[in-house]
Amino acid sequence: MRGDLATQPLDALNVETGTRPKAPAIEGATDRDRAKGRQLAAIHRHYLMDLGKISRLMQRIEAGDAPPAALADIVLHSDMSRNLSAFGTICGQACHVLMMHHNIEEGHMFPGIHGPAGEGIRAVVDRLRQEHTVIHELLNRLAVAAQALASQASDKRFADVQAVYTALFEAVRSHFRYEETELEEAIGVYLDGI
Fold first, then answer.
1. How far apart are CA 144 and CA 124, in angstroms?
2. Which of 10, 19, 71, 80 stands 20 to 30 A from 142 (CA)?
3. Mind listing the pLDDT tens digit for each residue in 65-116?
4. The whole model's pTM is what?
5. In sequence order, what are the residues at sequence separation of 6 or more whose Cβ sits closer than 8 angstroms to the Cβ of residue 36?
């Protein structure tokens, strides 16, 4: 996950590289702490539903029930896209709306955990930050592919959108699962919930 991600081939942009650190158990963490940490999963479900909208729309376009331009609109205006654009790393000039999820993680949640946590949990937080950059790049590529499809529909351009979308969905789903699992106790202990 190092180097310029924009130059990486699509199949190199994934978050499961086999090197994810595991968070150690936090001494004194309670079931209540873990329940507070599971609040993150509820937030993530919203973003997975957002990605589901894109998938359903692609199916409609493939069936001829929706114009390709509709895909560019939903990709560029999805909550996840606006949210990730807060870091200025995706969608280029097309995405301008500031949203909260990664902003909260990068600006509040990660520093709140990273500071007081031990080495093992800090390694998880650092890894999650690296994974954000991969997801940002995939979202940027999805926006570009959707715009290209909208400007001139073709089977190849639709296949490009599908390939990027599949890579994005797999990365996001894996990232969310990892984050929810490894930070469950830390969110409750160090942040007292989300």
1. 30
2. 19
3. 877 666 666 665 655 444 433 323 322 232 232 234 566 677 778 888 888 8
4. 0.80
5. 187, 188, 191, 192, 193, 194
